[in-house]
Design goal:
The protein is globular. The N and C termini lie far apart (about 55 Å). It is about 15% helix and about 45% strand. The chain has about 290 residues and is mainly beta. It has one domain: Beta-galactosidase, Chain A, domain 5 (Distorted Sandwich).
């Protein structure tokens, strides 16, 4: 009888153990309707967000907004909750903050069509999204941007798939473009150049990665004495472009309709484990 009782209780005990594991995730991602339809993601090292429909008109941009933070626990839900009572809460340092300026740009790692030397911005922010896969150490989500006219007679739509894994300074991004009116288009993935922030730019030795080290680009709420590292790695990129005129560092790839541009976008904060430009650039070289 005792052995039978133990066998009966074993599944319950395992379930409780599983619940305990589920209570301590190292990744998260979700839509944030309480804050202008942001779509936020986070792991134990990095955090960021993409802008949603409610923010259109104020900031209509596909760019990745970086949130810097100390390594360790997840903080985004706490910051959003406290911002409801204290607007701008996450612009102040609570073991990290939002001190990165995106505007109409690729921010800390996104892509758009690159046609006739022009970055062709979507007409909207993401309009729908869903979680595709979730575990304590990995989460995958997708965001959808409705079709816009990237060039005359070339309507383009974007489906973005993002993988966030624990223990990584990089997220994996797969941007699939569908279009008509052209056999193929060039897509550029990259980062905003904040020219007035003493930005250090590295092409590194490889032609498939770029890295930046700079002062915080948004210090409107309080001074920021930490520095930010940003990087994009695109295997099999066709070209690398650093353009002061476009205010971007770019990696380009030509694709047919339905083709996917795959890259990794990374970031760090000097108040965490990555203390200086040399450490960050060396890390990106090995990524």
């Amino acid at each position: 009888m005792m052995r039978r009782l133990l066998l009966l209780f074993l599944p319950a005990a395992l379930a409780l153990a599983g619940c305990k594991e589920a209570q301590d995730p190292r990744v998260m991602a979700r839509e944030v309707p309480e804050r202008a339809d942001d779509f936020v993601f986070e792991n134990d090292l990095v955090a960021g967000r993409f802008y949603g429909e409610a923010l259109e008109g104020e900031t209509t941009s596909p760019g990745l907004d970086i949130w810097v933070k100390l390594p360790g626990r997840l903080v985004a839900d706490e910051w959003y909750a406290k911002a409801v009572e204290e607007p701008g809460y996450y612009h102040h340092d609570h073991g990290g903050k939002d001190c990165y300026k995106v505007g109409v740009s690729l921010g800390g790692g996104a892509s758009v069509p690159f046609i006739d030397g022009r970055l062709c911005w979507p007409a909207t922010n993401y309009r729908s999204g869903e979680i595709l896969e979730v575990s304590p150490d990995k989460i995958v989500f997708s965001l959808h941007y409705p079709a816009w006219e990237a060039a005359e007679g070339v309507p383009v739509s974007l489906d973005k798939r993002v993988t966030v894994e624990a223990g990584s300074y990089f997220i994996k991004v797969e941007d699939t473009y569908r279009f008509t009116g052209a056999d193929s288009i060039t897509v550029a993935a990259g980062v905003k150049l904040h020219g007035d922030q003493d930005t250090i730019v590295e092409k590194l030795e490889a032609a498939d990665r770029i890295a930046l080290w700079e002062k915080a680009s948004d210090q409107g709420s309080e001074p920021e004495d930490g520095l930010i590292g940003v990087a994009v790695v695109m295997p099999e990129a066709d070209s690398v472009l650093f353009s002061g005129e476009l205010d971007h560092a770019l990696l380009t790839k030509r694709i047919p309709s339905g083709g996917t541009v795959s890259y990794q976008a990374g970031s760090c904060w000097s108040k965490g484990d990555m203390k200086d430009a040399a450490a960050w650039f060396d890390f990106v070289r090995k990524q």
